[in-house]
Amino acid sequence: MEILKQRILKDGVVKEGNVLKVDKFLNHQMDVKLFNDIGEEFAKRFAGTGVNKILTIESSGIGIACIAAQHFNNCPVIFAKKTLSKNLDGEMFVTQVKSYTKGVTYDVMVSEKYLGKGDKVLIIDDFLANGCALMGLIDIVKQSGAELAGAGIVIEKGFQVGGKTIRDMGVKLESLAIVDSMDNGTITFRD
């Protein structure tokens, strides 16, 4: 997706430890027009798959997933929560996810009320690096008995193992921008 790649080159900042900071438009300050273009692109790439629910993980994927849902007949968006709160009740699907950027392992959960047999689920997230978050969300879909339509990722770090791991599992994975390297602060993309 060329518009996304150009935005990453313009406003993305490479930080120490292979961290790509895109908080100017993606995961702190959000460019809603760009999110709409992203949602439209995901709808094209997953056309005909029968998606009726979108699943993401808090918090950076929520805005993207909500805007994308408009392009999937306004289907519901479910987000896996990283902390138990008084608002969560009933049985939960639970899995563990290690955050690449925070270096913390979370128990993430989704209420069994919102996901189950008969659902066709598209997972959407902002980043894919080592694949821990995506693997956790895939596990939740499996626990629920729902069918996984695929995963839509805004930015994939192609030089890390996550994308290969997920594709090797046979999951339809669509990444809108795949970063091949960030050597010396210079971002290069896979074609």
From TrEMBL:
Domain (Phosphoribosyltransferase): residue spans on this chain: 49-158
Binding site for xanthine: 20, 27, 157
Annotated catalysed reactions: XMP + diphosphate = xanthine + 5-phospho-alpha-D-ribose 1-diphosphate
UniProt keywords, alphabetically: Cytoplasm, Glycosyltransferase, Purine salvage, Transferase
Any one of the GO CC terms: cytoplasm
EC number assigned by the record: 2.4.2.22
Principal location class: cytoplasm
Localization terms from the record: Cytoplasm
Top EC class of this enzyme: transferase
Pathway listed: Purine metabolism; XMP biosynthesis via salvage pathway; XMP from xanthine: step 1/1
Gene Ontology molecular-function annotations: xanthine phosphoribosyltransferase activity
Residues noted as binding 5-phospho-alpha-D-ribose 1-diphosphate in the record, renumbered to the chain: 129-133
Database matches in CDD domains: PRTases_typeI (cd06223)
GO biological process, one term: xanthine metabolic process
Biological role stated in the UniProt entry: Converts the preformed base xanthine, a product of nucleic acid breakdown, to xanthosine 5'-monophosphate (XMP), so it can be reused for RNA or DNA synthesis.
Subunit and interaction comment: Homodimer.
Protein family according to the UniProt entry: Belongs to the purine/pyrimidine phosphoribosyltransferase family. Xpt subfamily.
Protein name, entry field: Xanthine phosphoribosyltransferase
Organism: Hominimerdicola aceti
Gene symbol of the encoding locus: xpt
